[in-house]
Each structure stands twice: as C-alpha cells, then as structure tokens.
Request: fold
Amino acid sequence: MGWSSTGRPVVRSSGRPVEGFVGLAAGEFEMPTRAVLRDGQFLVMSAHHRATASAMIKTLSLNFDRAPAIAGTVVWSETGRLDSLVADAGTVTTLRTGAVVGVATDLLAPAGAGRLTLIGAGGQGPDQVRAVHTVRPLRELTVVDSDPRRAEALAEQLAPELNGTHIRTATDAASAVGEADIVCCATNATSPLFPEQALPAQVHVNAIGAFRPTMRELPDELLASSTVIIDELDAILEESGEILHALKANAITEDDLIELGTALSAPTAPGSKRTVFKTVGVAMQDWAIARLLADKFLP
Reply:
C-alpha cells in the first residue's frame, strides 16, 4: 500500500505479512513478550494463532562477532497436523524482517521513490534491499558500512539482482542519506547513525537494527518530526532504545505511535512528509513465515 498524489491509499501489498499484522491488531494472536537473556544474546519468542490452532516457538542465540550472527531454530505446529516444521532461525528472521520492511515501505514511501540508502552491510542487509526493490524499483542504491570491504561485497552481491540500478558504497551515513527517498537502518548501533538535519525534507526511514533499550539508530528530532509507525506497542515499549529515549526526552508521546496493523486496516495519509517505521520484531512474523513453509512442505 502506498499514497497517491491525492493522499488516497493505493493498495499493492498482499499476502501473509499484511494478513499477519492486520490479524495481530484484531487480536487474533496470543503473543507473549519475548524472553530476553544475557542482555539479548539469547531470545525466545512464541505466538499462537487462535483461528488455526497453530503455534510457533523460536529460540536463538545472537552474536554480532560471528557470521551468521543468528543461530537457532523455529518450530511450527498445528493441532490438525501430526508433523511439525523445524526451520533455521537465522533464515526465517531475515525473511520476516525483509517482508515487514517491504510492507511498511509500500505503505509509507512516495510512489515514485527510487533512491535507497542502506546503512549496515551485515546479514540483514540483502533482504532489506530486496524488499524495498520489490515495492519501489530502485534507480539508485547506496550501501553504507564502517567497513568499506563489507559494503563493496554486498554491492557486488546485489548487482546482478538490481539490473539498471546505480550502486555505490560509502562509509559516512550522514552524507549518504542527503538525497535518499528511503533509508534502511540495519545496524547494532548504540547512538544515532545520522543527525536529523542530514535527511531531505521528504523521506521514509526503516529502522530494524536496535532491538534492546541500550541500542539506538535514530535521533529524537527525526521521530518528533515524522509520522511514526511501529510493529507492536508492547514490544516497542519494552525493547526499542530510540523510542524509549524519545519518550523520556518528551520528543514524542505514546499517542504518536501507530501500530502497523492499525495503519494497514484503516489507512490515512501520513501527517508529515517524513515517515518512520520502527520494528523490534515480533513472533507473529516468524509464525507467518513458518506457516508458509508448512503449507508448502508438510502433508
């Protein structure tokens, strides 16, 4: 879903990611806040979909000093099936995070947006680009990473998939976002990646990297000047460092935060030219990917 020049919604997104968030907003899921051990190094997430009597449990360890950073399993089961599905947690996490960024970008980015700056060339980076490119075909891509070799490696990896897209790399995020239509932040930063004034007047920003209160990718000033869409309020208030920081600084209030499922169910034009989608990841997303796999591979 995106916005036309008249401010009316243009529906394009479909499928399980959209259905999942709409269902989450409608109360179709039983979804406890995830268990966090050793300050985020070990995570346990679960979701139960009442209508299908199906459930998903994901357990993982997270270590940014290794590749891949995520190791663990996703287990999906349904009362009507004898077999359960077991999948790699890292792969499912990457797929579901890319999928929700695609949904949010389609909802919030201008229809003609085609210049993406990706900050963070780690394991989540490729599917961030693929998701955005699916809903907003890219004319330009800038890959930013503090390690220029990682940025160049990702640019080379993506080049065959982005035929006709001009790709460049950079090490300085602040200068790289100045002409972007869309920015994707996929880092483990503990302080803002760029100042608010470095962004153009109209831009959509996806922030997926910070998933603990001690982590932060976005400045308070950006959140204060933007329409802010989040994945799920309880999870955000528990885990999102940038949202918690902005709330404490009185830059925003809880009333400024709009859940994605609500925005998809009753779309209205964004209240500002800048939009932000902040996600810490919720178990329903893993359930949605696992159910797709179960429908394909289980009898």
